[in-house]
Amino acid sequence: MKLLFIALNHAPEQTGIGKYQGEMAAWYAARGHEVRAVVAPPYYPQWKVGEGYSSCSYKTEERDGVRLYRVPLYVPSTPSWLKRLVHLFSYVVSSFPVVLWQALFWRPEAIILTAPPLMAAPTCLLAAKLCRARSYLHIQDFEVDAAFNLGLLKRPWLYALALKIERIILRGFDGVSTISRKMREKLLEKRVPESKAFLVPNWANIEDFDPVFGPGEWRAQLADSKDTVLAVYAGNLGRKQGLETIIEAARRLEATPSIRFVISGDGAGRSDMEESAKGLTNVVFVPVQPFDSFRHLMLAADIHLLPQRREAADLVMPSKLGNILASGRPVVAGAEEGTQVYDAVQGCGIAVPPDDAVAFADAIEKLAFDPALRVAMGQKGLAQAKEGWSKDSLLSRMETLLCAGADASYTNPSMN
Question: Can you list the positions of beta strands (E) in 173-254?
Answer without folding.
Answer: 175-178, 197-199, 229-234
